[in-house]
Amino acid sequence: DCFEAAPENVLLSADYSQVELRVLAFIADEPVLKEIFVRGEDVHTATAAQVFGKDPSELTPMDRSKSKMINYGIVYGLSDYGLADRLNIPREEAKAFIDAYLERFGKVAEFIRTTIESAREQGHVTTLFGRRRYLPAIRSTNFQVRSAAEREAINMPIQGTASDVVKIAMNRVADALKREHLETKMIMQVHDELLFEAPE
To answer: Nearest CA to 159 among 115, 104, 96, 114?
Structure first.
């Protein structure tokens, strides 16, 4: 089970697709999300079925698209206002989607709440590998400033850990290419993908 080992083994041995959502599942210890990945299901389709209360066969492409935006919106700490703007839907509908998501994935809701509380107390958040980001604005009396810092507090442990994972993978790949005396060269990183140039 890829979620039972230590973080460095878990995340580096996992398929990199949707790495940030895999990190969220791991950090939040969310059993429903973890099970989706363990079964190898499409996370956006499975989430849409959970949030919209439909059988996967009844889902439309628009349902999946909304689910994808909700999945990543949660990772980025998106508010109902932000989600409404991105999906071009009423704010009430966006709030209903987020509420349904957090009700179905209760451990994610708990992660969000405890992460914000911890960031407020400690003044920082960290990745699973110990990289730290200070958030003095999380104690601001200005609502907008404080809200932005709260979104950063939710996002940084997830996106930061995903970044750490990819950087470790890049180092391991670079070492493997040297060790095997291959002409293949790593050219660039694009989110959770690595681009290579190789002989035909």
So the answer is: 115
The predicted-structure confidence for 73-121, as pLDDT tens digits, reads as follows 887 878 888 888 888 889 998 888 888 888 889 999 999 999 999 999 9
Residue-wise over 178-198: b if at least 16 C-beta within 10 A, else e? Answer: eeeeeeeeeeeeeebebeeee
Q: Tokens 């089970």 map to which residue? A: 1
pLDDT in tens, 35-70: 998 988 889 999 889 888 888 888 888 888 888 888
Question: For residue 164, how many other CB atoms are within 10 A of its CB?
Answer: 19
CB-facing half-sphere around the CA of 197: CA atoms within 13 A: 3
Compute CA 35 distance to the chain's CA centroid, rounded to the nearest angstrom. 16
Read off the pTM: 0.81
What is the rounded distance in angstroms from the CA atom of residue 66 to the CA atom of residue 84? Answer: 10
